[in-house]
Amino acid sequence: MQKNWLERTELLIKENGIEKLQNANLLIVGLGGVGSFAAEFLARSGVGKMTIVDGDTVDITNINRQLPALHSTIGKSKVEVVADRLLDINPKLELVKINEFLSPEKMEEVIDSQEFNYILDCIDSVTPKVTLLLMAKRRKIKIVSCMGAGGKINPAKVMVRDISKTYNCFLAKQVRKRLKKEKIDKGIRCVFSNEIQKEESLEMTDGANYKRSYYGTISYIPAIFGLYAAAEVINFLIEKDE
C-alpha cells in the first residue's frame, strides 16, 4: 500500500490542520530567491490551491540563490520551472500560472479574480510592492510582505514583525514612507532582517522593471525569508477557526 506523502505533516498538525491547508487558496507574487522557496514550502505543506506570478526568466546570476535557477534552466520562464516543480511535489495542487510582471491594472484583475486566503508579497521593487500592499489592505486580504534580503549575511537577524517595527532595511524604509502617504503606518506583517546592510555590496542598475539598484546576496538568506513567509501563512491557516 502506498503511503500518504503528508503522513509526517498530519502527525504534527492533525487531520484538521491538513484539511485547512488543502482548502486554502494563496497568491504568491515574485518567484525569485524568496518567492520560489516560499512556494515550495507551501506546496510541501499540502496547500490545495495556489496562483504564482512572475514575468522573469532564469538568468545565470540567479543560480547563487533561486530555486528554479540551474544551468539547465537558463532562459526559461521562472513561472514554468517553478510550476513543474510544485506539481511534481503535489500533482493534485490546483495551480494558476501568470507569466508576467503585473501592471497595477493587471494586479487588480488578478487579486479580484479569486478569493484568496493569503497573499505573499515577494516583490523586490518598491512601486509594484506598495501597489500590491495597498490593494490587499483595502480588500482586507491577509498579506505577508518580504523586505530586503540583499546585503545581509546573518540568518539569526531575520524575523517577522509588523511593518512599523522594521528597521535597518532600506526597502522597508521606502515602503513605510510610501504607505504613510496613504495613511497606513501599521497592520502589515513583514519578513525582514535587522542586520545593517553591507553598503559596499550595492550595485546600481539601468532601472528596468522598477529596479534602480540591488545588493549582493548570499545563497541562504533569501531562502530563510521565504521560509519565514511560508511559516507565517501556514501557522495562520492551521490556527484559524472555521
List descriptors.
242 residues; alpha/beta; Rossmann fold; 7 helices; 9 strands; transmembrane
Helix content: 25-40%
Tally of alpha and pi helices: 7
Under the CATH scheme, the architecture is 3-Layer(aba) Sandwich
Strand order of the largest sheet: 3-2-1-4-5-7-6
Q: Report the top-level CATH class.
A: Alpha Beta
State the order of secondary-structure elements, H for helix, E for strand.
HEHEHEHEHEEHEEEH
Q: Looking at the structure, what is the overall shape?
A: globular
Radius of gyration: 17 Å
Structural class: alpha/beta
Beta-strand content estimate:
15-25%
N-end to C-end Cα span: 33 Å
Indicate the CATH topology.
Rossmann fold
Return the average pLDDT rounded to an integer. 94
For this structure, what is the CATH homologous superfamily?
A: NAD(P)-binding Rossmann-like Domain
Overall domain count: 1
Give the low-pLDDT segments: none
Could you please describe the fold and organization of this structure?
By secondary structure, this protein is α/β, with parallel strands linked by helices. The chain has one domain (9-238): 3-Layer(aba) Sandwich (Rossmann fold), CATH 3.40.50. Helices cover 39% and strands 16% of the residues. It has helices spanning 7-22, 35-45, 78-89, 104-113, 126-138, 170-181, 220-239; strands at residues 25-29, 49-53, 94-98, 118-121, 143-146, 158-162, 189-193, 202-204, 213-215. The chain has a seven-stranded mixed sheet with strand order 3-2-1-4-5-7-6, sandwiched between helices. Strands 8-9 form a two-stranded antiparallel sheet. Helix 3 (78-89) links the parallel strand 2 (49-53) and strand 3 (94-98). Helix 1 packs across helix 7 (220-239) and helix 2 packs parallel to helix 7 (220-239). It is globular, with a radius of gyration of 17 Å. The model has no long low-confidence stretch (mean pLDDT 94). Residues 12-240 form the THIF-type NAD/FAD binding fold domain. GO terms for molecular function: tRNA threonylcarbamoyladenosine dehydratase; ubiquitin-like modifier activating enzyme activity. Keywords: Membrane, Transmembrane, Transmembrane helix. Pfam families: ThiF (PF00899). One of its GO terms (biological process) is cyclic threonylcarbamoyladenosine biosynthetic process.
